[in-house]
Amino acid sequence: MDSEDTTPPTQPAKPRILAVCPPPGIALALQQALDVAIEAVSTKAAALDLISDRQWSLLLLHHRRLAGGVEPFLDKIRRGRQGSLIPIVYCLERNMDPDLTKKLVKDFGVQSLLTYPSDPQEIAHHIGDLLSLPVKQLDSPIGAVSETHGGSPTSQEAQWESFKSALKEHVAALERAATDLLEDTLRDNVRREAMRRSLRMALDAGGYGFTALAQSAGEAEQLLRRDEAWTPSRMLRFCELVVELQEQADRVSIVPTDEALASATLPLILVIGRDEALLDLLGADASHHDVRIVAAESLDAAAEAMTGTSPDLVLLDIGGDGASCEELDFIGDLAAHSPPIPLLVLTEGDSFKDRVSIAGAGGLGVLDKRESAATILSVAKEILGQSRTDVPKILVVDDSELVCRLAGKLLERRGLHVTTLTDPLKFWDTLEEVNPDLLILDVEMPHLNGIELCRVVRGDPHWEFLPIVFLSAQTDAGTIQRLFMAGADDFISKPIVGAELITRVHNRLGRARLYRHRMERDSLTGVASRKAVEHMLERSLRLAKRYRDSFSLAVIDVDRLNEINDRHQTTAGDMVLRRLGQMLSKFFRPEDVIGRLGGDEFVIGLHRAPKAAAQARFEELLRFVRRERFATETAETIAVSLSVGIAEFPTDGSEREAVYQAAGHALSAAKASGRDCVVAAGGHSRAVPTEPFDVVIIDEDDTVTDMLLRMLLNQGYRACRFRDGEEAFGKLVGTAPALRARVLVLEVDVPGLDGVAILRRIRLETGLHSTRVIMLTHRSGEEEVDAMFELGAFDHVAKPFSARLLLHRIRRALAA
To answer: N or C: less crowded end of the chain, CB within 10 Å?
Structure first.
């Protein structure tokens, strides 16, 4: 008896697709939508090598990225051993030479032509049809719509079934119109019914996320709307659209499911260029800005890198020669991507012509690459929406609940926070509460129309720069002109097409963030500018008044910044302010107000924070700043302290100016109290609790002291340094000293207050019970040294000396 064959059946191999110079993200989309193995290459030579070596099920070519020589390339493919058998899908440009299009089909046997930019879902469907493969939905639109407010599963399923049933009726009405048209019997009532059906189909399909279906239906509606004789070309196009609608309607017979795509923890920034120094600087600073940096030397390398994943933002370095045609094409590809990939251009020049061409291609802005890496990354993060808010906020105002729900779901699936409003009479309260990054308005609404609202928004200084996008079924030139005259930034026609809405919103958000960064951010510190912070405080106080919340306002001053500038040059003071701005942004909550009023003065607003809680928070800030060592261009470090005055709304004032003045008076009291403290309006200064250090050095000589400080810090000791005797004395003594030192290294000739005077006053006020003092002097007589020991000095070291010797003496003092 033959033994039973237990060999497992051979699994059929996956179809293999070769993508030659594909648009960004298309390869990834095809892997998600189709059960295929896909390989992407960025050059024609690499494609020819792979075609000769391996078996392929299909070729995907992109005309723009083939960059000339298309016909010889296709001829080589078809003459190859396997090339004549491989189906080809070819992505065209919108304005391509029709003769070349005919050649592609007739001479080179291209099976499918697509116009790019095209929806990735449609490209997947074309390839799925050619390879007889099932196609997964990329955007899971129905799953999102099924989460309507308060809707039960039964009603959601019924809604979906109703959409499918109506879709069949809509297509049947268009088929009847096409048949009558070909037979020259099309009556006006049939045309109007088909026009109504196509408009309804476009609205519903666009809302559910079926972009291609909505676009085809919209085009059919426009052809039917034209009240003129039918030309042969118009008849042919309408019949083609009806066939397309039949096919597309069949593809929505199954409800797609949601597919969660894993995303990286940190935003990914792709830098394109050959400037290795810039790449090194950006890479070194990336961790401080919570982003990841990847690099590509060329556009081809970037396109190849993007076949596996799409970056969150692209930085394109064009140097000083201006943007080339290939670079402008690349920018256009990213703008056409679904969703658009934001792109900033880095350049060494500032050509207005470049700015215009880059903006026209879809770039969000131009930055000077000679800016610091921190500045470039700060702008990049602002574009990504990561700096002050996690999720961009959109307010949609439309009296149609269906439009609000569908627009909301389309945008929420793209990671945006959406608030919808169907009653325009509640507009102002909602606008204040939401504080949106972008406003979407319907034109025609009861009581107040969108144009009236837009004019009022543009007339309010708080909202004059808010991006406004209109929705309207009226697309005549007069209406559009009225919209833009009222202050609109963009216009989207109804019915909503998902891809168009998402593209317009993403572009407007990106440009608005870049504009806000330049207009509302202080260029030195990165926090809000004076004008912006005044608007933010006004809004915060209005909300606190409406909801009866507490709101604390603090004014912060950097102690003795002028002295830092005098000793270390102005650049040192600027570096202190820049670093302090970064620290404040990380220390406080995203919803808090952080701004610079000018000079060394900052203002902080804390929502829902009574004065006592705010005071405790700012005391923690002072401890945080005191531990920081601020670097200078000469690599030395500076210790910085702050003085803070706090006032509370409404206890210390009912208006912004009154609260600010109360905080200003409290700040003056903090300075009068010796600085480095927090004073609340109507109260007394409350010094920050003493902070222990192993070693405190008071010496203005940098030769050995800097080396000693680094050695102490590297060996794990807590150490700090002062150059001014009076400043150090203020920190070490008093009723509530800020610092406590186990070992004090004290130079006799220190400026401000000499070392012997400091030793004498410390002995009188603290008794030196827990501090060992090592005196540093130049050659001194025995009497002077004896006098120091009588005042309580533990040890004495004569200059010059080595850092290693002094470190040995410090260790001995610590062990005593």
So the answer is: N
| 681 secondary structure, DSSP code | T
Between 238 and 12, the higher pLDDT residue: 238
Amino acid identity, position 437: D
User: Rounded to whole angstroms, how far apart are CA atoms 44 and 89?
Assistant: 16
DSSP structure string for 427-458: HHHHHHHH--SEEEEESS-SSS-HHHHHHHHH
- If pLDDT is split at 50, 70 and 90, which confidence band does 148 have? very low
Q: How far apart are CA 603 and CA 525, in angstroms?
A: 13
At residue 368, the 3 state secondary structure works out as strand
pLDDT tens readout for residues 733-775: 765 667 778 899 988 888 877 888 888 887 776 666 678 899 8
Q: Which residues contact 672 (CB under 8 A, 6 or more apart)?
A: none
Three-state SS for 34-50 is CCCEEEEECCHHHHHHH
What distances in angstroms separate CA 578 from CA 226, 461, 584, 600, one per listed residue?
61, 28, 10, 11
Q: Which of 533, 504, 512, 511 is nearest to 521 (CA)?
A: 533
Cβ 361 vs Cβ 331: under 8 Å: yes
The answer to whether the beta carbons of residues 429 and 167 sit under 8 Å apart is no
- Alpha carbon distance 420, 260 (integer Å): 25
Q: What is the structure's pLDDT at 643?
A: 93
Cα–Cα dist 404/410, whole Å? 10
Q: What is the DSSP string of 135-188?
A: ---SS-HHHHHTT-TT--HHHHHHHHHHHHHHHHHHHHHHHHHHHHHHTT---H
Strands 37-41 and 313-319: unpaired
Select from 66, 82, 70, 60 the least CA-distant residue to 126: 60
**What is the C-alpha end-to-end distance of the chain, expressed in Å?**
95
pLDDT digits (tens, 9 = 90+) for 232-288: 888 888 888 888 888 888 776 544 333 222 223 467 788 888 887 787 788 777 766
- Mean residue pLDDT across the chain: 77
Q: Distance (Å, rounded) from C-alpha 127 to C-alpha 124?
A: 5
Tokens of 524: 């030195």
- Cα atoms in the Cβ-side hemisphere of radius 13 Å centred on 336: 19
What is the Cα 257 distance to its own chain's centre?
29
pLDDT in tens, 569-588: 767 888 899 889 888 988 88
Tokens of 726: 């009076």
pTM above 0.85, yes or no: no
Task: Kindly state the tokens that stand for 792.
Answer: 């309580």
With beta carbons less than 8 A apart as the criterion, state whether 637 and 631 touch: yes
Contact 803, 711 (CB under 8 A): yes
Sign of the torsion formed by the C-alpha atoms of 60, 62, 65 and 71: positive
- Coil, strand or helix: which one is 777? strand
Answer whether 791's CB lies under 8 Å from 763's CB: yes
Helix (H) or strand (E) holding 233: helix 232-250
Locate the DSSP E strands across 455-498. Answer: 468-472, 490-493
Confidence of residue 558 (pLDDT cuts 50, 70, 90): very high
Quick check: 313 and 269 in contact, CB under 8 A? Answer: yes
**Confidence (pLDDT) at 647:** 94
Q: Which residues pair with 271 in a beta bridge?
A: 295, 315
- Assigned token pair, 373: 């890496």
Nearby residues of 92 by Cβ (< 8 Å), 6 or more positions away: 63, 101, 113, 114, 115, 116
Helix (H) / strand (E) element for 788: namely: helix 782-790
